[in-house]
């Protein structure tokens, strides 16, 4: 095997690792699980929050709840080391539902880290609420604001278009009567092969499939790289034997 062939093999292996590992990179964003619920139901929503900064930790999280199609009730799962508050306010306009007219509703959930507590770089934390009744609508965005110890605030508040092309800071979104848009790029293959989510647990299934594809891609790339290195080493040894002979 020539050195040029070896270089090509390494490049191909690296490319495979990057392309097939792309679904893992997408999972680094703040997202909600499940991402689908039935109208009228009560569901547990878990926000997975990774710290993407290399120098600062996450010390506060704020989730904005819908006001045009509000939840009637929101409670939270206590999280050691964090203080949680649910803000309820009077709505600008009353909302009529099957259960009556709503004049006030939960509009915000805030988690604040206690002194000395943070989500350190390379770590993630899960924040869970129970929300309902789920409004009868297509979907609701849940804009989330991530506060870092260095004063930086990252707003996860951008809608994902129907094309599935993910924006830089996508807002966690709960799909109700609508289906989640198909993702673009490599992950679109997974989206088209899997059935559209029809139940609250479907979001978890899609996430597991994406992670599995990413891990598989990394494994294949690593195997190709090991084979290429082994081949080069073998060629080198054969060359040495010829010189000695």
TrEMBL record:
Gene3D superfamilies in the cross-refs: Uncharacterised protein YcnI-like PF07987, DUF1775
Domain YncI copper-binding: 29-175
Pfam families, alphabetized: DUF1775 (PF07987)
Keywords annotated in UniProt: Membrane, Signal, Transmembrane, Transmembrane helix
Cleavable signal peptide: 1-28
Transmembrane segments: 208-232
Highest taxon in the source lineage: Bacteria
Protein name: YcnI family protein
Organism name: Leifsonia virtsii
Lineage: Bacteria, Bacillati, Actinomycetota, Actinomycetes, Micrococcales
